[in-house]
Amino acid sequence: MNVTTLTDQYLRERLSKGTRDDGRDLFSFRNISIEIGKIPHAEGSAEVTFGNTKVLAGIKLDVGEPMRDKPDEGSMMTGAELLPLAHHTFDSGPPSPDAVELARVVDRGIRAANMIDVKKLFIEEGKSWNVFVDLYILNYDGNLFDSSALAAAAALYNARMPKYEEGKVVREGELGKLPIGNLSTSCTYAKIGNSILLDTNASEEIFADARITIANDEQFVRAMQKGLSGAFKAGEVDMLVEKTFEKSKDLRKMVQSTRGE
Question: What is the CATH number of the domain that holds 218?
Answer without folding.
Answer: 3.30.230.70
